[in-house]
């Protein structure tokens, strides 16, 4: 089994925080979304090209997030993303957010996505996309064509 984790850095800006300087809970999901986009980019995939070439996109169907320690204004964070499942029309990521300064785990999430067509109906992940992601899948037994 190979292991591939993409790490994406982010700085917490004032706009990411509540009035107490703590990252607003929904913004962790935004950080994770950006990190998943960078994960796909590292696999040679661009979301806009997937949509224009194959007529599909990915929609979040489930987000299970666990908040452990708050991030604060001006901290540097690392968002780690792992692709842990790819089946039919579904893919799942495990993501973790760490504070760069001391490596403390702040937030972790399991995010599930469905491949859908422009009309909103579910579609199998295109073969070319599956092939690009296959080497980035951390649990080979989860892969099925």
UniProtKB/TrEMBL annotation:
Keyword Hydrolase attached: yes
Family annotation (SUPFAM superfamilies): Thioesterase/thiol ester dehydrase-isomerase
Keyword Hydrolase on entry: yes
Species annotation: Mariprofundus micogutta
Lineage: Bacteria, Pseudomonadati, Pseudomonadota, Candidatius Mariprofundia, Mariprofundales
Pfam families: 4HBT_2
Entry similarity comment: Belongs to the 4-hydroxybenzoyl-CoA thioesterase family.
Name of the protein: Acyl-CoA thioester hydrolase
InterPro entries: 4-hydroxybenzoyl-CoA_TE, HotDog_dom_sf, Tol-Pal_acyl-CoA_thioesterase, YbgC/YbaW
NCBIfam families referenced in this protein's UniProt entry, alphabetically: thio_ybgC, YbgC/FadM family acyl-CoA thioesterase
Keywords assigned: Hydrolase
Gene Ontology terms, MF aspect: fatty acyl-CoA hydrolase activity
């Amino acid at each position: 089994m190979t292991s591939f984790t993409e790490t994406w850095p982010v700085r917490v800006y004032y706009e990411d925080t509540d009035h107490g300087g703590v990252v607003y809970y929904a913004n962790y999901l935004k950080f994770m979304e950006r990190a998943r986009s960078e994960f796909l980019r590292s696999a040679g995939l661009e979301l806009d090209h997937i949509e224009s070439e194959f007529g599909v996109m990915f929609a979040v169907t489930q987000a299970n997030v666990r908040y452990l320690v708050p991030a604060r204004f001006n901290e540097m964070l690392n968002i780690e993303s792992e692709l842990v499942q790819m089946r039919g029309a579904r893919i799942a990521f495990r993501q973790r957010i760490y504070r760069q300064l001391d490596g403390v785990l702040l937030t972790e999430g399991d995010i599930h996505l469905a491949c859908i067509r422009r009309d909103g109906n579910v579609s199998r992940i295109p073969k070319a996309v599956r092939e690009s992601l296959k080497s980035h899948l951390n649990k080979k037994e989860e892969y099925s064509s």
